[in-house]
Amino acid sequence: MFESAELGHAIDKTTYKEREAALREALLAAQVELKRRGDFPVIIVLAGMPAAGKGEIANLLAEWMDPRHISTLAFDPPNDEEAARPPFWRFWRALPPKGTIGIVFGSWYADPLWHWDSERHQVQIERRIERILRLEKLLTDDGALVLKFWLHLSEDRLKKRLKTLEADPLTAWRVSKEDKHFLKHYEQNAQHAEQLLTRTNQADSSWRVVEGWDANYRALSIGQQVLDAVNHHLARDSIKQRRADAAPLQPSIDGVRLLDTLPLGHAPIKDYKQQLEALQGRLNGLVRDSRFARHAVVAVFEGMDAAGKGGAIRRITGALDARQYRVVPIAAPTDEEKAQPYLWRFWRHVPSCGRLTIFDRSWYGRVLVERIEGFATPAEWLRAYGEINDFEAQLDDAGVIVVKFWLAIDKDEQLARFKAREAIDWKRFKITEEDWRNRDKWDDYIAAGSDMVERTSTTIAPWHLIGANNKQHARIAVLTALCDAIESRLKRKD
Amino acid sequence: MFESAELGHAIDKTTYKEREAALREALLAAQVELKRRGDFPVIIVLAGMPAAGKGEIANLLAEWMDPRHISTLAFDPPNDEEAARPPFWRFWRALPPKGTIGIVFGSWYADPLWHWDSERHQVQIERRIERILRLEKLLTDDGALVLKFWLHLSEDRLKKRLKTLEADPLTAWRVSKEDKHFLKHYEQNAQHAEQLLTRTNQADSSWRVVEGWDANYRALSIGQQVLDAVNHHLARDSIKQRRADAAPLQPSIDGVRLLDTLPLGHAPIKDYKQQLEALQGRLNGLVRDSRFARHAVVAVFEGMDAAGKGGAIRRITGALDARQYRVVPIAAPTDEEKAQPYLWRFWRHVPSCGRLTIFDRSWYGRVLVERIEGFATPAEWLRAYGEINDFEAQLDDAGVIVVKFWLAIDKDEQLARFKAREAIDWKRFKITEEDWRNRDKWDDYIAAGSDMVERTSTTIAPWHLIGANNKQHARIAVLTALCDAIESRLKRKD
Predict the structure, then answer these.
(1) Which CATH superfamily does the domain covering A258-491 fall into?
(2) B101-113 as b/e, with b when 16 or more CB fall inside 10 Å?
(3) Which domain of life is it from (chains A, B) (predicted)?
């Protein structure tokens, strides 16, 4: 893997000067086009041996191109806000928007790289590699250009480089204890690096190993590769087209659909008020339990318009301290959100430890309204199932309790509720043209919802399918399921 | 001040039940209209004595209204991200967008409230009060409805309340050491509170003192006040109109304008390359100085199109580590930014300690392009001068070094540069129709720029007016001024 990067590649100064000028001009031109098109981001991951020139390359790329549209993302150890959330939250919030370039240091590769020798961490490392593969797949599937450079130094050259740096009082500070430790266990570290690189090579995001010894060589080599890759990406057909070639789902052959089979009507509950109060008391106790401080809740509400999502949410929040929860209503994405992969706008609302976020509609819009209205291509919403499962698994891994509710009503009940709303002056705004249009697509929503439940109801994040023609029944069922989920998680030992 | 709030107000249960239903319905209706209009936020500040019901009121408001459009902002002690920036940064980033309601606990009033007795803090307290007045003025001038409630308890009632809470094992945890300390020094604390309330009363954001003893009374009282205030605010003429009544600035009587008087042409610099390298080395040394870790840099570039802002910025970034700086190009605001006061989109980019943010165009757009194109009303851009001075003073207070550059070229030079850009294929995108239109308004920009410098060049954040017909001269001058500013700040003892 590193053979070619130990050959002692070098470029003389004259050649460098000649080629640099042309390269720089071409890079600037490509960057202008990237910004103008604005339909994908470029993510450049810089990793490699110590003192192999990662920082220098980042500076040079920013110097060659227009620094206004480049962000350099250096991930230090997580700060408080980051440590209180799933590990990849900080990568998500730093993703460069479409049309710009992000240069990433100490990225998602930083942690696992240096601790392979610890037996204890083996499982985490495996998990991390899977996460990396999925993140990069998601990004490239979304159209991002992901370029990963590994700056390599042979053992001899690393030794020499560290010695030179240490000899000069102006650069001695750059050699850290970790660097020396790395050199001491060079062979083992190189093996681990090779393993990591091999296992995280993917068709659309493969590693490019570059020898880091000669500054001219590594600069021209990486600059040229960035240029070629960006131009190649720009030359493709529109990003959308490229991804639209997946076979759509077929309805079940006997026509039976999961969401048609739910019992919807329930008898009135005589002691509703008492039951509600008892459940709210239980919920309040659970989130004030000291064990809850290491957890968080993400609750998701989906269902037809007027299914009673808002009312159910208010029965939850009524039990909570307002400082502890946040309700996020999902409407059309803002333009900052449109410049990112679709999951970005949900990642940004992931709660920190001890808190609850309740989503009124959610990432499932991708496989419901966006599928039905054609806002997402078949390839996009088909891969969303897996991306969503992974997103929820990451939440679960970090101790976040994911609870998902599908509130089900029938068409008659919806009509009655629409009419009731229209009769009340200030509720009239809640019924829009769109609601009536959605109603015409009832069947499509049942089909898409059934596919959704089938593909995304998992042990860690099951769908609770709740008949909601009777509002009282729905609210009691929602609160019960939520309390049960929190309670069983608090009891779990992990 | 607190006389009426010690009368023992109370509302019986029957009256409460009757009035609550109507109030709730009216609040919901007002909230729907607020969201629909979407042209101002409601900011409800909850402060007061310990155990006077602040948390209960927040929960109740969220329960009465639609929690999806309410955010509850509880400010705990600053976390690392917040502590590395000016104190008000965390308030700015949490401001509720237009059309929504934010309920603020432990707000900008939290710190100064309890430490008035410390002589040592007197100056900070004075400073903080000024900041509060300015923040609230800015928010209300921008159309926000700011409602501040002080929940009061007399000494006897506070004593009784704490005793009751402590007696019940279920509520004993709610009584903190601070609460007891507060009670012990009740009289003094009440005096301090009165002083704070008096000094932070403003026409558009006055305090409303409410007795916190009886839960029914305080709930109805605050609910009704919120309702009336929101409805009153909704009933006004459009927010824009209300603010448009300020006398515009007059040009100077003798027609002499500051920015017309700058020397623009400079002789070529013979040893430009050496000078540039020396300055870049100096800059690099300054930002790696250990003292710089307690500071940060905000550099601002303004000037006519093609004045050489981008080139000057690249000469700065060329001296820096890419991980340490960020260049923020200011284009049209995103829709998330439009839902906030105009300074919000700059506050969000304020660097943390040890870092540099370089703005390519800036908040000065408010008094330049927005003034000239009529995007801001005269009242809006006229008050912007003071708001900007305050913003920069806050940066300076927090150790941020603010350096502002106006790069000046003449009309002939601009024309030559436009034409040169059009001749280069990939630079053609840099010249737009808008650039040509702006050129026609040259005189307006000179006038607005002159007014701007006159009103915003301060000792802590002076404008550097730099003749830029000669690019080399401009770059050397920019780097010199930047280095001087950092150096003198690092030497300053404070």
Answers:
(1) P-loop containing nucleotide triphosphate hydrolases (3.40.50.300)
(2) bbbbbbbbbebbb
(3) Bacteria
